[in-house]
Amino acid sequence: VGTEGRNPKVADLMKLARDAGIKKADAADIVEDVRNACSKWNAFAERALLGKKERDRVAAAIAAVDKQAKP
Predict the structure, then answer these.
(1) How many CB atoms sit inside 10 A of residue 13's CB?
(2) What is the mean pLDDT of the chain?
(3) I need a surface site. Which of 13, 30, 31, 60 has the fewest CB within 10 A?
(4) CB burial class (10 A; 0-12, 13-18, 19+) of residue 38?
(5) Are 45 and 57 in contact (CB under 8 A)?
(6) Mean per-residue pLDDT for 44-66?
(7) Mean per-residue pLDDT for 44-69?
(8) For 49, which DSSP code?
(9) How far apart, in whole angstroms, are the C-alpha atoms of residue 22 and residue 16?
(10) Is 38 helix (H, G, I), strand (E, B) or coil?
């Protein structure tokens, strides 16, 4: 995202949105929508009958990205 390839922060996403002409409030809503969707991963994975090992692996990756992405 922009100049930050591996560990973009919310600020990087917001700058990218600004550069793309997306209003700050709209960009913040999108970031929140994605976070909200990711927070529902376990419920989705269970409904999809994904095995616990794979479900936990993806959940850990989502948690790590969320932690890194915080401003």
Answers:
(1) 20
(2) 88
(3) 60
(4) middle
(5) no
(6) 92
(7) 89
(8) T
(9) 9
(10) helix
